Fold each of these.
Amino acid sequence: MKKRFFFGLLFCFCLLLSLPCSASAEETETVGERMPDEYSGFLETIPEEIRELLPDSLFSADSPSVADGVREISGGGYLLRTVLSLLGADIGKFIRRFATVAGMLLLSAVAANASATFKSESVGRAFRFCSSLAVLCALLGEGYAAVSAVTSYFERIRAMTTAMIPLMGTLYAMGGNVTAAVASASGLSLYLTFLENFVAVSIVPFSAICLAFAAVGAMDSGVRLGTLLSTVKKNYTTALTFLMMILGTMLAAQTTLGARSDNLAMRSAKFAAGNLIPVVGGSVSELLRTVSAGVGYLRGTVGICAVILLLLTLFPTLVDLLLVRLCWQLSASFADLLGCSGEKKLLDELASVSGYLIAAVSICSSVLILALSLLIHCASALG
Amino acid sequence: MNILRICMLAVTAVALLLIVRRWNADFAPLVRLGVTVLFGTAALTSLTPLLSYLRTLTGDTGLGTYADVLWKALGIALLTEIASSICRECGETGAASGVEVIGKAQILLLSLPLINEILSVARDLLSIGGAE
């Protein structure tokens, strides 16, 4: 009986030693050294023109190589080089666009002067209508390009957010922040739903309404739609800002509270392990601290990388929109110089629509940057 | 044709018109018509190099299509204006109005591709918005 009890105890002790200890040792070795599988999925959502500018080390599966890549892309030299290369193409486009609009305005001024010499009022009006249509066609084409660029940017952001949800969830869960992972995933899912069902659906009709009002105002100076247009614009931007503010606050509060709660739960578990298990308890605590450092390293690397990639994706769209707006503003001044009042009104409205598109793009991007900043700054619950 | 010649021709034509009106008033409208056609042709001839220069200027840019429509509309408007003035001077206001209506219709017909282009931009905007 004593022998059987002794062998049973020995067997249990061997089982205890072999199973959990060997498993945790393997896990600790790899935590922080390998990138999560979701990271490659996130990189696939980066636009091709941005991906070409990134160093190869960023696409590695080893976290030290990725960290080297992140160090490189976060350096001033790389950022300046990339920004200038992206800016170069945009400035060329801006000059071409401005030259086209200025040429069209000159033609319009010539046409207006020619029509002033006509004795017949009706023929002059028909000619002015034709010349206004020609100017409108040239300008609306450019306005459509700006709206199209914003729509494709929202598509990219949607793809990036979809890839970011599992990646961030994994990184939170690896550090023991299970509640924070759930809060972050639910916040980002809500953001995604909002992006798909409100921004992506409403931004084009909003721009179309503004462009239509502006076109009607330019075609017939007797129609006064300015007040209605400004009301539509103000209400849309206010609604968008308000919703994004609520979303940002919810995301920040839920993630922070979740992280604190996870931290408390994990500390209690560590305390219990340290006091109740005499020898192994101390080493478990040390082990968790090592895992925590590895997870913190991964979070920092992935978080900073994602923020820079998001900014690099945002930058071309933002600069393009800013240059489009500058082009409309300069052209409006030029139209004023030439005495084309209808065209000036249209160009002012187009500049205003570009301003609202810039606001929408910036507001929507800021929520993602906030979510990533929370990931970078959120302390691991294991540490 | 330089401006000096045109001015001299104008003064001569007016003098001729006064003499014809005193000699036989029935021939006066015919002479007036001839003079107006002559000056209209001279105006179009002097405008042609300017228009062809502007066409080459806009041809290299992306404004070619719009500029072409504008020049054609300008030509139609000028011809309509000259024709309706002649009709009105001859006392035919009905014919003058008819010419103007036809001229306006021609200009509007010329604007149809532009209207079509604006509608296509609107269609594209709707298709982006998913309201197709």
Amino acid sequence: MPVEQLLGILGLTALCVPLGSTLFVAVPWAFGFELPERRVTRLVGGAFALTILACLAVDVLLIVAPVQHTTMTLAHWVIMPNYSIDARVVFDRPAATLMTLTAVLCGLIGAFSGSYLHRDEGFHRFFILLPLFATGMMAIAVADTLDLLYAGWEFVGLSSALLIAYFATRKAPVRHGLRAFAVYRICDVALFTAIVLLHHGAGDASPAAGLRLGADEGLVVALLLIFASLGKSATFPFTGWLPRAMEGPTPSSAIFYGALSIHAGPFLLIRVSPLLMAHPAARIVLAVLAGVTALHATTVGRTQTDIKTSLGYASVAQVAFIGLEIAAGWTTLALWHIAGHAILRTWQLLRSPSVLHDHHQHVALTGGHSEHEGRKFWLTHKLGRRVHTLAIERWLVDDMVRAWAAAPLFVILNLVDRADQRWTHFVSGAKEVNHDHR
Amino acid sequence: MIIVELDIIILVGLLLLTVWLAIGEKEPRRRGIAVAAGFFVAAVALAIAGARGILSPTMATASVHLPIAALCLLAVFGAMPNRDATSRVSSALIGLFMCHAMLSLWPASSVATVAWVLAQGFTWFALPTGPARRGATPYLALAALAGAAGLTMGGPVGMTLVLLAAVVRTGVFPFHTWVVLAFEEAPMSVAVALVAPMPAVALLITAPSGGLAWLGQNGSMQFAAVTAFSVAAFVPAALVVIQKRLDRALGLLTVSIGTVVVLGSIDPDGVGHVGGLVLWSATGAALTGMGLVTSAIMARLGKVRVDRTQGLLAKVPAFAALFLVFALAAVGAPGTAGFASEDLLVHGELAQHWSTLMLFIAAMSLQGYGALHLFFRVFFGPSTKRWMPAPLKRERFALSILAAVLVVVGLAPQLLIGPPQPTPVAAAAAHGGTRPAQPHEH
């Protein structure tokens, strides 16, 4: 069997097996027949085991086979006389890295969550959404067209929002899930627009297609792709949703905001790095945004009082450094950084419920001298206190976004809706008109 | 000959059924079952006709509208609360279906003109007396007059009038008032049956071709039209998130999605046009599904508020799952039929105007947010209701068929578009192969 064909089969396995396990759990659940927990964990665990094997086989093939960069069309999704949408995939080192990382970490999280979420009300929901998320990440990893990447991107966003609202009987997680989804949708506009411009200007939406665009159009597409990556990677000014996303269960926080989802943005930029290299202005924009985010997240993360939020901001700071590496053109280093950071952060977040226990043990082992007290920075005392206060308030970024963007929008919408209801009242003669707005 | 015989059998059968229901059967449950069975037979007959090539199963003609409309109406009657399936509503909806059939089978003829006017009459008749009917009267009259005049006149002016009729009938902002009123005041399942199949799109695509050519030839006019439709899709989608009641929010979401479909159906570019047509079928079924789940919930709880969470997930997980599938299909999420169609739509003529393109994509993105917003508000949060009856078998059956259709077509959209015709690009891609390594891989 040719290597390309074998890679295709393995890639298809890695893409479809998690999706299949989602359907196996979801369909009976939706109709009121919940599978026993043990069967669910075995089913999902088995699916991830198969996926891990497929990914490892892809790794081995890419290492030993003479071809290190293979593209293939898994399926022609839509074919028209002058246009086609293909499920075209690529197997190369970035793809293999993210695929393996996704399979291994999702498998570990699945195994961990089987007991962590035992008898929890949302147990089945979690095991429906985890493989769905893995499918989305696999699609992002292997996509050779931004169309397929966008499909995976949407799966990741949807499963993320639904898992933030995992504790569905509380108000705050529901609100925060919607907030995260709103940020994703804002940034998705840029990604979808970039895809359309690539199709229109370059003939297809492969990551390398941007190089065929003119200078101005290429720069616009590069900037759109940078903007698209901001949402999922919680880059400034979209950092505010991340601490709120920690409302979800710890395993999902680990896999989404420590390990994989948060790296989807940098991975997109690694994929389109040839386009970024061709446009220094885009790289400068990326570097500035990443630098601001690194400063912001570092200061905020060090002043937070709960471990998950602190780790969340630490993740953002690292992702910002990865962005700086991409802006500098060090994509291989960025890929290594993604892999190392994902593994470390997953461990830290999974360990976070035991942080007090760990801390006490650490203090006891070191004889009570482990705490670093009174560390001095180069800031003056007065300035240091001010920075500290602002960092606790997260530099008021959320307040500014709310006051300058969200509030005026809602005022306008309420005015339009009120006028619309008055017109409805006039046309229909209805006695009750609902003027009560939020 | 076979075409005539089959069409006549279907139409006469439905006519007899209508008459029998209107004057004979008084028991709502039996009436609902009989009507559902009638539509099921019609849908099967039309599907067979499509498979045998009598009616084209592809989007190249409007005939796909018939099975989709039949499927939507089958779902409506399968899941409609018994109290809503009155003689008046049943006969009006069957009459409306027959008008859809006439519009598709005999386009650009005097039959189409009569069918269009009659369709507006049946729509008016199906609405309950009161604000919904009063509010709809001027809009439906305008749609009927503009459509009839346009079809009779023909040419650029006639087609512009047809476009106006389609805009009013679909409820494109700012002509959306009657649609939102129908969702607020009429039974939800009736409102959905009147609006979701979007018969005006059939009128647009079956009307004489070339009538709207002036729109494609005049660049500034085309830009203005695309911008106007983008704004018209954006505003109601944005209004969804500030609504207090689910029925009104769903009406606004329907209006926004309908605007996207109308824009696709007038797109002179082949890709965008096919995208619009696939979106028409996909959203027709998806909006029907959303409306029916809402209808089932409202039949149990009354009006549902969305300015606060309702927490229905634990009580009716089946409705939650189905609502999510329909909502995602309606807004073009991956894995559903809407995804491919939105992709096709924006790659058509819209791509020419990329400054407007972002507004249009923003509108579609807002629709997605609005749909998930409604899902979260209805099914998540602390529960405020103590008990709620489980979904009925017929509700599960009808809604599951719709959901399955949407997912299958989403995974294989070529089923709607027609047999694949490999292009040079696709053929080259099909061979796969290797390419030189890129800078980032070193």
Amino acid sequence: MLWIYNLIVAHRYITSFILTVSLSLYLLQAHPTEQKHISRVLGMTIFLPVQKVVDKSTQLRNSAKENLYLREENTKLRNELSRLKSQLHTGYIENQRTLFQDQFSYELLHTQVVARDASHLYRSAIIDIGSESGVKVNMPVVNHEGVVGKVITALPHSSMVSLLRNTEEMTSILHQKSKSVALLQVESDGSLFAQFRKNTPIQEGDSIVTSGMGGVFPEYLSVGVVERVLPVKESDLFLKVFVQPSVNYEELRDAYVVTLDAEWELYHKEVDSLVQEIQKDVR
Amino acid sequence: MFGKIAQWSLLFVFVVLLQTTIVPHITIAKTMKPDLVLIALFILALEYGRLGGIWGGFFVGLLLDVYTPSHFGGLALSYTVTGAFIGFFERKKLATEPSLQLVLIMIGGLIMNSVYHFATQGIASAVTAPYLRTFITGFVPSSVYTAILAALVLFIRSTVAPNRIR
């Protein structure tokens, strides 16, 4: 036997070559079932550590693929959520509109605020509907919270709304408990106030609504609540009452134009002719 | 001895993983596919001669066969023959220049691909037009690509361990 060992060692290159090539050829020629069996046996014995490493690598690759898939899925779901939220918002708006329609006997035109006063005072806003949708100057603009303002310019496809906080605006309001009427005015810093007669029983938190006397806003639309009442002196005739508006102007997005012509539009011509006559008499 | 075998085994496992994961991404025009396993086998065969080349080639080929069993034994045969060929140029016996090493690896690539082709398609396919076409459009570009990558690997290796390779 020693001579065989010596022969192999002496010719180890050629022996190794013949052995490995023979083994390879045997594997190549083997029946597919046998090949699978050998492959499986090799995979479970001498290549087991390799198998584990390959498995880990495959797991990692699968995790990476899964991660990518989940990321895509996440993006899709986020988009879907965004879409559903948008739908929900639209549904909410529709619902609010229906409620408004029930509350009002006037037709409401839904609109969205597309631009606002650059300052924090929120004096004016631009809405996305105009005269082509039926919007006219002096039409009231409201939302589910209350009075927003009134249209001051109506272009074909957009309109400008003067908000309640505009210093140039004065709105006739009503203290709901006492039925006292006053004019809502705006301070230079944008805060709303009204002067009620001294004996009016006003308290903080009381509700203020439109009186319907200005000719623009229908009556009993929510304007806000009494924020504070300034202390009065003996000599004062009026109470200065600050009003917290019910509309959150910072979050103003959706609103409704009430298709209601100003009441005094009917008497416009008569008033104009009366003014002209007075002017003639004065001259 | 066993430490060296374990070290090279780990290297081959790593290279096989690279070959199956990264190479598909750096393949050019579907046919120019570098062979990282061949580069590793080339380094092994230059270091340990024919014996290392033969057994290293056989085992790495067998390893690839186990995980890509389309023609079981075909890769074992082709890498064995290639390892034996490169082993003739063992650096202890022959002072192979870097440029010659690249030529060697190119020839090694052609041998490996051709042997695999014959082993799986039959020797008679050597004279057929499809083989010649595959040889020119597939084997030669792949071997060149492998040689280019090998040049990079050998350069890095000579920088990291200058005493181990010329």
